[in-house]
Write a structure and sequence with these properties.
Elements lengths: L3 E5 L4 E6 L4 H10 L7 E4 L5 H12 L3 E5 L2 E5 L10 H4 L9 H8 L1 E5 L12 H9 L2 E5 L3 E6 L8 E3 L5 H12 L4 E5 L5 H13 L2 E5 L3 E5 L8 E3 L4 H14 L1 E6 L7 H9 L3 E6 L2 E5 L8 E4 L10 H8 L4 E7 L8 H7 L3 E4 L4 E6 L7 E2 L5 H13 L3 E5 L2 H4 L5 H7 L3 E4 L1
Parallel strand pairs: 2-14, 3-13, 9-10, 17-18, 21-22
Antiparallel strand pairs: 1-22, 1-23, 3-5, 4-5, 6-8, 7-8, 10-12, 11-12, 14-16, 15-16, 18-20, 19-20
Helix pairs in contact: 1-2, 1-7, 4-6, 5-6, 6-7, 8-10, 8-12, 10-12
Length: 421
């Protein structure tokens, strides 16, 4: 597959676009199949680079994977964690969650540190402290870490996570699903893909109660069933299409739209004058909105505005009237794309690693981008290229392909002038 995008801006977007399955959900459901030696079936699995790498990670330890389009059959009957491919784990941040099911099934795990997007510090301290609190021994070295049972394992019944970490929550749930006892976890994250994972673990045989104030009580089973589980639609992709429609203009219908997961997001955009129509619970229409007002958006844990939508919102700010403020409360390295927008003519002032002002509206001009370090930043530059005058060249399309399925094909069908070269 080619590794560059060439975009000629100025075309309005018109027609229907279909949201794919959630990458964040798919990676965790794939990992959860490791909890059982019985066959599992996953449907609506997106065709993405990160998902391909996750399959290869499982294959490296002996998983039998048969993919037929967006349906995947997985058998983990004869897996050996000792053959784990370190290089592959280093490519995908989401691979960190395999520690939970492997530790639950085998009692110990040795893993390298995961890779993925370079968007600031994302340490594994929450994960390590989780298992230390459960009584495990955690040893860290320069290249890998080892988690194993201590000589005297306490029967801990309540654990407080150090913060609302999505992957630490998922790791905790997958480990506990294979334990024959009840454990209460507090300070858990509640993102839609975590809810998708909870649904799968319940179907496998775990008893899970989701309680108020970010608490989950889970009673697992040593012998979990195989499962037929559907991956939810990607609310990040859905939200990105909304922003693209507003920035570029036109008239698009977004199908497979998870409106329940984006209620606040849509509400806030309507506040600034966005022409958005919720046709039904799974279809949203976005039309040209010429008089968008400036906004202040702070990204937070669910049900707040998702961090993965911060970059597209930054591009939106360049087309709004007045000065908008972006406040990323979760990551300190995710504003670097604004420096690239500035090269296109955007009026941007980065206040610190979390906050920035964007004054609009401004006419963007196409330029050449050599490389982007993260999925969402790369997608934001595609949106900018679609509204910019002239040509925009984006090298390293692989980064976008990691998180957006066939993005160039979807845009082309909507009328965008975009091609791989």
């Amino acid at each position: 597959m080619s590794d560059s995008f060439l975009i000629k801006g100025g075309n309005l977007l018109r027609g229907d676009v279909h949201v794919s399955g959630s990458k964040n959900a798919a990676l965790k459901l794939i990992a959860a199949t490791l909890l059982t030696d019985r066959p599992c079936k996953l449907t609506n699995v997106p065709i993405l680079k990160d998902v391909e790498v996750m399959f290869d990670i499982l294959r490296s330890i002996g998983s039998d994977i048969n993919q037929r389009g967006r349906t995947v059959y997985i058998s983990n009957k004869n897996i050996k964690p000792s053959t784990l491919d370190y290089k592959l784990v280093g490519k995908v941040r989401g691979s960190v969650v395999i520690m939970g099911p492997l530790l639950s099934r085998f009692g110990s795990v040795v893993m390298p540190y995961p890779g993925g997007d370079k968007i600031g510090r994302r340490p594994l301290s929450f994960h390590f402290n989780l298992f230390r609190d459960l009584g495990f021994s955690v040893k860290e070295s320069e290249k890998n870490f080892t988690i194993s049972k201590s000589k005297k394992m306490p029967q801990v019944s309540k654990v407080i996570l150090d913060g609302f970490s999505v992957t630490a929550t998922e790791t905790a749930l997958m480990w506990a699903a294979g334990q024959e006892r009840e454990i209460e976890f507090s300070t858990v994250a509640e993102e839609p893909h975590i809810q998708n994972l909870v649904e799968m673990l319940r179907r496998m045989g775990a008893n899970i109660q989701v309680k108020p104030q970010n608490q989950i009580v889970i009673r697992g089973k040593k012998s979990l069933r195989g499962v037929d589980q559907r991956v939810i639609y990607d609310y990040i992709e859905a939200g990105t299409w909304v922003v693209a429609g507003l920035v570029v203009g036109g008239d698009i219908r977004i199908c497979n739209f998870p409106t329940q997961d984006l209620k606040l997001f849509l509400h806030r955009l309507k506040r600034i004058g966005a022409n958005i129509e919720i046709i039904n619970p799974t279809t949203v229409r976005v039309k040209t909105s010429p008089n968008l007002k400036a906004f202040r958006m702070d990204v937070r844990i669910h049900p707040g505005i998702a961090a993965d939508l911060q970059s597209p919102l930054g591009v939106l700010g360049t087309q709004c009237n007045g000065t908008s403020e972006i406040f990323d409360t979760l990551y300190e390295g995710r504003l670097s794309y604004l420096k690239e927008l500035k090269k296109m003519g955007a009026n941007v002032k980065i206040l610190d690693v979390h906050r920035a002002y964007i004054t609009g509206p401004t006419k963007l001009k196409g330029i050449k981008f050599v490389k982007k370090e993260d999925i969402r930043g790369g997608m934001s530059l595609i949106i900018a290229g679609l509204v910019a005058s002239g040509q925009t060249f984006i090298k390293d399309a692989y980064q976008v392909d990691r998180g957006y399925e066939k993005i160039d094909q979807k845009l082309f069908k909507l009328g965008a002038n975009i091609q791989r070269i």
